[in-house]
Every structure is written in structure tokens, then in C-alpha cells.
Amino acid sequence: MTHHKRIFNKDDHEHDEDGEAVSANLFEIPDTDGPIWVNKFTEDSARAFVKQLQYQSRQDPTGPIVVYIDSFGGDAYALLTMLSAMESISNQIITCSMSKAMSAGAMLLACGDIRYSSAHSTIMIHEISAGAIGHIDDINVQHTNITKLNEKLMKLLVKKCKIKGGVPTLKKQLANSRDLYLNPDEAIKFGLIDHIGVPMLYKNYSVEYIVSSDPRGNNDPRKIKNKWPQSKSGV
Predict the structure, then answer these.
(1) How far is CA 201 from CA 3, 33, 70, 193, 222, in A?
(2) 15 tagged catalytic
(3) Which of 23, 126, 212, 231 is catalytic?
């Protein structure tokens, strides 16, 4: 059983029907060796992600951190908040698509130091899509900003996937379908992930993934282990 610590801001609270104070910003932080789950990309979920990431990094600045992704995507600015937090810590970040990593989820997946996908996962990438209403001048300003943001994310994806030909080549690949859906094998060829399997982080900070043909690892010589040093606390 995984134990959790509950963290909340004592100043941010509501009251239930009985007048008891309850937290409005309550979220759970897993044990230091547990994965961080990402489902949504909103301001609130990004804040929770940053707090979880920083908490685990404070517990052990040298151990790897596993991020499980199961998301249809969401806000691009929330994604950038999460990426900034990942870049700010010394820990190695291991990302894994559990069943779907689409749009912002695929970008987060690609930005891991080691990237995995389960055999049953679907990964989708596309350019930023957005709508605008209001005065024509305001719409033009919004369009300019969205274009800049899209270029930033496309450049990042090119870098992480090591796409030859740069952004023009990537945009050409995306132009045919708008939404480019990839299975795990295709995602490896694209450069978006490194391995097919699910990483499991144990207390001695060894990370293990098992090839999809034998998910239980029964007598499979292809079982692969990547090991990191134990934490200073000996957990």
C-alpha cells in the first residue's frame, strides 16, 4: 500500500455544512519513491505538479523521478510551467505514457530524460489550436502571440525528438493530418520515446521496464534494468 502525505495551505479553506473548515487546495503527494501522475494541464494541476516535483527533489536531489502521463492535453502555459519546474531540479526525470499522451501530454512525455510508453498507449502531437473573439486588432495580437508560442513548442519538440530538417520538416509532417497519432513503435521511430514498457521505481532507486511481449517478465531474457545509486538516506 502506498502512503501519502496531505499538503494544503491553511489560509485557503472553506467550510462544510457543519461549519468545519476544509481545505480548498488539498492534494496528495506520494511517497518519495512513488510516481507523479499527470492527467490535466490547467493552472491548478500545474501548481500541484510543481509542488510534488519539488517535494520529491527535496527528499532526495539525486534520485530519479518517474512521471506517468494519461492525458488528452490542455493549456500550453500550464505545460510550460511544468517544463520549467522539471528543468529547475537536478533529478533525472523519467516520463511514461500509460494509455494516452496527447497534445501537451505528448510534449511533456518528449521532454523526459528517459521516455517510455506502455504497449497500449496512443500518442498524438499537433500544432497549437486556439480560437479568438473580440476586436480585430485584439484578434491580431492574440494570433501573433499564439504563433510565437507555437514556434517555441515546435522548436522544443524538434530538439527533443532530434528531427532532421528542423521545424519546417516537423510542420510538413503535421500538415497532412493536423493531428498526428502514433503507436509506441511509431513514436520510437519519430524520436518521441526511447523504450516501450512501464518504468517501476523501487526503494533502491532502480528503474525497470519490461518489453511488451512479456509484461510480467516471466523467463524473458529481454528484461532490462537501469540502476541508479541509492539515496543518501538509504531508502
Answers:
(1) 15, 6, 18, 18, 18
(2) no
(3) 126
